[in-house]
Amino acid sequence: MNARHIPALLLLVSAVMSAQARDRVLHLPVDEALADVTTRGIVGSMTVRFGSASASNVDVLTHDVQVDGGALPVRENAYQRDSQPPSDESVCQKAFTDAMKRLATAARQAGATAAVGIVSDFKGQLVDDAATYECHAGSFHSYVSLRAQLARTVSQASPVPVNSGYADLANLDAVPSTPAGKARYAHFLTLPKPRAFAFLEDGTWRFWADTPDAVSKVFDDCARLNKRCWLYAVDDGVVWNAEEGRRIASAAQWRLATAPVAPKDEHQ
Question: Which of 15, 79, 98, 134 is the most exposed place for a label (fewest CB within 10 A)?
Fold first, then answer.
């Protein structure tokens, strides 16, 4: 080999090694990932709850199930040189979907109907967050590693409502909606619990009742419509806030607001 070619070869090797070593860590919204059409089809009726606190008071069937999802950054047109590579976020969504597929398979094999206490666990590095999941995006592969507890059933009771103090539950005059919206809310109050009622940004509404996943299903509806929405009432409590920034705008926010507080260690 000609000596003048050696520096160029070293640069090429260095570039390849750097590309292989790329590991961009992203923390992405759980609600958006679960709202993906493919992911929704995979999850189906299985109850899914992120954050270790969501496994509290649940009769766990199988402990610490680890699943590793992966995806390749495939271009839209692999035969077209100027085809743009996919974003890390879009590849991470595919890796998340792959992980959820493996988790749903494990749940079916175990006879479970719920995956709770889900946390990100990449090579022993734990990220316990009810609102986000962790993805490691590389040049040639992206990974999402999850650890979950599988349960045969989950409690039919909703978390203890966070009453905002905005209004009494039955005060129709306080409901921020049209007469039609107030009428639907009045109907909602006659339905069995667990239940949840939300208003969308366009002034319409969605509600679910008689299901432990009422809150999640309301936000799933909003995601399918590609519209923001905020909880107005859950079970027997009004959770609405006059300030938009203080309203509950996702199932993850609701889980955080109702998560049990760990007892204080008096020895600390």
Answer: 79
Concatenate the DSSP letters of all residues of 196-250 into one string.
Answer: EEEEETTS-EEEEESSTTHHHHHHHHHHHTT--EEEEEETTEE---SSGGGS--S
CATH of the domain at 80: 3.30.110.70
Which residue range is the domain that position 219 belongs to? 172-258
In a domain, 14, yes or no: no
Q: For the whole model, what pTM was predicted? A: 0.59
Q: What angle do CA 74, 78, 84 make, to 5 degrees?
A: 70
**pLDDT one-digit tens code per residue, 152-179:** 876 544 455 568 899 999 999 999 999 9
Is 8 inside a domain boundary?
no
3-state secondary structure of 260: coil
Last residue within a domain, chosen from 151, 183, 212? 151
In angstroms, rounded to a whole number, what is the distance separating the alpha carbons of residues 219 and 86? Answer: 27
Q: Does a structural domain hold residue 198? A: yes
Is the same domain home to 178 and 118? no
Number of separate domains in the chain: 2
Burial level of 217, CB count in 10 A (0-12/13-18/19+)?
middle
Q: Do 233 and 240 touch, CB atoms closer than 8 A?
A: yes
Task: Report the distance separating Cα 144 and Cα 27, nearest Å.
Answer: 10
Q: Look at residue 255 in the predicted model and tell me its pLDDT.
A: 80
On whether residue 4 sits in a domain, the answer given is no
